[in-house]
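Thought: the user wants the 3D structure for the chain below. I'll pass the sequence to the structure tool as-is, report back what it returns, then summarize two notable features.
Action: structure_tool
Action Input:
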Amino acid sequence: MTRAYRFVPGAVHLLLAFLCLAPRGASGEVRSLTLPKAVEYALANNGELKALRAEKEVARAGLERAVLFPNPTLELAGDTGALTGSSDESTVSIGLSQEFLTGGKRAKRLSVAERETEAVHHQIADQERLLTLEVKSTFYELMLAQKRRELAQRAIDLNGKLLEITRERLAAGDIPELEVNLARVEVARSEGRKIGAEREFSPLLARLRTLLGFPVGDDVSFDGTPERRPLAITPDELTRLALENRPDLKTFEATRAKGDAAVELAETERIPNVTLGVGYTHERSVDATGVEDEKTSDNLLGVKISIPLPLFDRNQAGIREARARKLSAENRLEFARTSVAREIEGDYARLAAAEKALDLYATGILPQLEENLKLVQEAYQLGEVGILSVIEEQKKYIEVHDGYLVALADRQIALARLEASVGIDFQNKTSGGAQ
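Observation:
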């Protein structure tokens, strides 16, 4: 069974996200966001994305401009002979002219504007895709920093317990004071590790808040346990989905279509427009007939047609420019389509390597490490091994767990990159092969 899914959240989704994630109330409680809610909030409130959406009005203005007819021209004229000694002679005229577009220019301009609007729409969708990737990557890095803080606290607890044991054994006379000092050093080192983890956590939190467009002064925390789902889609299938769904490819396709329409419009611009005008003229004059002058008054109605002659400018430059833009759009689209397969291949390989590393940690290293640490700690309490063995085993425990956390974050980031490369959120495509 194949389930339909949307790749770009619509206005309804953004409204729901805004309502669900409205600013903190008067209670002042700290809000906790999971990754899906964080992505929804970012898509609704990110400053750059909101600015880009506002630019849609520019494209809509282009649509309005494309369907408008040229404005008519009103012409008023008056002549008098009062200043030249012929006060009885005058002419008053009024005219109205209208330019008519030929060759279907209006429809072709509308086609160009429609393709431009479509390209802007896909540009916004592509920015949403990239923003989603950035939010997910930063979120996973933040979770890694948070887990490292917890791991640092675990190291403090382990070394604190070791320090207590050494003090008890020193009081019993089983060990020299040097071992107590070694335990104190390890406690201090683990506390320094925690300080470093805190230093790494704060900038990531600030960056994620910025990406989400979170109001200054509002408190928010992020929480999420990575859910590891197997990805059962072949690279060829992923490439096919990417060619169908990636908004940047759709942007290039819309730009190419705009180039085709622009070439047609430029070629049509060679045909001159026709201006049709009508006018009314009232003339007063004096005719000399023998002994006395005879005053006359004439009313004239005229029609005028104006057609520019394309002798020199036949829009050669406009046609050349439109064809060059069309060729550029075609080349960009072709390059982007050929790059998709390589991009997905690299992201898929990165995800596969991260999966292998996680399996190695989960099945072969971590369980044995826990058992080894427990045995060494018990052996030290019984006096069967020295403190250096315990310190070494605890260091190994912390370092290996840190490697596991890094591998887990790498896996999630690799999955997010693959989702962005394909243009699909695999978490919402549960029945199409992603699970």
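Final Answer: Structure generated. The domain at 11-68+105-255+338-428 is CATH 1.20.1600.10 (Outer membrane efflux proteins (OEP)). The beta strands are 31-33, 73-81, 86-100, 220-222, 274-289, 292-306.
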